[in-house]
Inverse folding.
C-alpha cells in the first residue's frame, strides 16, 4: 500500500527502545548572548538581530585551529532556542519521554559541536544514573532541523550509531546551499534583514561556511569551467584580497580551509551506513518555494574578478526557500525521504519554520513513537516519497536545477 513503509526498525521486539529525545536546532536557531556582563546582552536572535554589538560575533582562530571570540572581553554563549520556530513543535511531541534541547554556538564547526553533543549525551546518561526511579539512558531518538544534521553526522562519524535509536532529519542541507554565499557577500540569504556588516562576520565562522554549496553544478566559472566556493582563490577579488589593515580575508581563507576538511572528512556519509541503521532514519523535505539552484561566476565584471552573478542565478521552486532538493534529497535512493507538497488543508511554512507544519508533527510522531507500521499517508496525498532526482537546464543560461522523482 502506497504510503506504508515497513522497516527493520519497526519490526523490533520493543519499538519504544529509546529512553529520551534529543532536539538539535538549525543555524540561527539558538540565541547567542554576551555572558561576560552583569546583565547578559543578546548578541544574536534570529527574530531580532540588528543589535549594536553584533560585530562581537566575529571569531579569531588560533594556530592550532581553535576558534574564540575576537573581542578579548567577550564570552559569547548559546542560550535558549527560537520560540517562534520551535516551541509549538516541541510542546506537541506526543511522548512521555524526556525531551532535551541541544543548544549550540552555530558559528563553530560541526566538529566542535559534534563533540559537545557527545559530551551532552554522556551528561544525560550520568544524570539518569543519579536520578531515583529512572532507568539508565542507553539510546536516544534524535530530531534535527537544517544545520543540526551536520552535528548529528559528525557525532555518528566519530562515535557511531550505538546510542541512536531513530533519527528524523528535517530540511537538511546535506550538500549545502548557495544562500550562505549570499550571506557572505551581500548579508542576505540565510541571514536576511541584518546589518550589511554581518556579511564580513560570516566569513570568520567555519560553522556557517560548512553550509557552502558542495554539489556538482552549484556554481560555474564562465564560460564553462569548474568552480568551488571552498576554494579561497575563486572568491570575488574584493573579498579575497589579503590586506595588512583588514584581517577578514585571511580569516576567510583559514575558515574555508577548516570548513572544507570538516565537510570532506568529518561528517558521516549516511548512505554508507548499514541498512539496519539507514532504516532507522527518516528525512523530511519541503517543496514549492523559490530556491537558488545554481549560479554563474563571471571571470571579470566592473573591475572585480570572480564576480558572483546573483541576478542571473537559476531559481526554481524545487526547494524549501533555502535548500534545493539536490542537497536535501541526496540520500533518497538509500534512506526514506519524504517531500511535503502544497496542500489546501495545511498552512504553508518554508525552511525556517517547517516544524510548524502539522504534517511534520504527524510524521515525527508516527516514526518515533507509534507501535504501528510507519505510514506517511494523510488525506489529500500531499506527502510523497522521493526516489530520485532529475536534472534539467535553464533555456538561456544553461545553468542546472533538479526536480524530484516520487513513487
Amino acid at each position: 500500500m502506497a504510503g506504508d513503509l515497513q522497516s527493520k526498525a519497526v519490526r523490533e521486539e520493543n519499538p519504544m527502545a529509546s529512553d529520551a529525545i534529543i532536539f538539535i536546532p538549525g543555524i540561527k536557531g539558538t540565541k547567542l548572548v554576551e555572558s561576560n556582563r552583569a546583565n547578559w546582552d543578546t548578541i544574536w536572535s534570529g527574530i531580532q538581530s540588528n543589535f549594536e554589538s553584533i560585530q562581537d560575533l566575529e571569531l579569531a582562530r588560533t594556530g592550532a585551529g581553535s576558534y574564540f571570540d575576537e573581542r578579548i572581553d567577550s564570552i559569547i554563549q548559546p542560550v535558549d532556542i527560537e520560540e517562534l520556530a520551535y516551541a509549538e513543535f516541541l510542546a506537541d511531541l506526543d511522548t512521555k519521554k524526556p525531551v532535551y534541547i541541544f543548544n549550540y554556538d552555530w558559528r563553530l564547526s560541526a566538529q566542535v559541536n559534534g563533540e559537545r553533543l557527545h559530551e551532552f549525551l554522556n551528561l544525560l546518561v550520568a544524570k539518569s544514573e543519579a536520578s531515583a526511579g529512572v532507568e539508565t539512558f542507553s539510546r536516544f531518538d534524535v530530531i534535527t532541523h537544517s544545520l543540526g544534521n551536520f552535528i548529528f553526522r559528525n557525532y555518528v562519524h566519530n562515535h557511531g550509531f550505538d546510542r541512536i535509536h531513530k533519527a528524523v532529519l528535517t530540511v537538511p542541507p546535506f550538500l549545502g546551499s548557495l544562500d550562505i554565499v549570499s550571506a557572505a557577500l551581500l548579508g542576505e540569504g540565510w541571514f536576511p534583514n541584518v546589518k550589511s556588516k554581518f556579511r564580513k562576520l560570516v566569513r570568520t565562522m567555519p560553522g556557517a561556511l560548512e553550509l557552502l554549496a558542495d554539489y556538482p553544478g552549484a556554481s560555474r566559472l564562465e564560460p564553462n569551467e569548474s568552480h568551488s566556493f571552498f576554494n579561497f582563490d575563486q572568491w570575488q577579488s574584493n573579498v579575497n584580497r589579503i590586506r595588512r589593515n583588514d584581517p577578514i580575508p585571511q580569516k576567510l581563507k583559514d575558515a574555508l580551509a577548516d570548513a572544507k576538511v570538516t565537510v570532506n572528512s568529518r561528517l558521516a556519509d549516511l548512505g554508507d551506513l548499514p541498512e539496519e541503521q539507514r532504516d532507522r532514519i527518516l528525512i523530511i523535505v519541503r517543496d514549492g518555494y523559490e530556491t537558488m539552484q545554481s549560479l554563474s561566476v563571471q571571470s571579470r565584471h566592473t573591475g572585480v574578478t570572480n564576480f558572483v552573478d546573483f541576478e542571473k542565478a537559476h531559481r526554481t521552486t524545487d526547494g524549501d526557500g533555502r535548500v534545493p532538493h539536490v542537497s536535501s534529497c541526496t540520500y533518497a535512493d538509500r534512506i526514506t525521504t519524504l517531500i511535503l507538497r502544497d496542500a489546501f488543508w495545511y498552512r504553508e511554512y518554508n525552511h525556517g519554520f517547517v516544524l510548524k507544519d502539522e504534517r511534520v508533527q504527524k510524521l515525527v510522531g508516527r516514526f518515533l513513537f507509534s507501535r504501528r507500521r510507519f505510514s506517511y499517508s494523510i488525506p489529500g496525498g500531499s506527502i510523497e516519497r522521493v526516489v530520485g532526482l532529475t536534472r534539467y537546464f535553464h533555456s538561456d543560461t544553461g545553468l542546472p536545477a533538479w526536480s524530484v522523482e516520487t513513487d
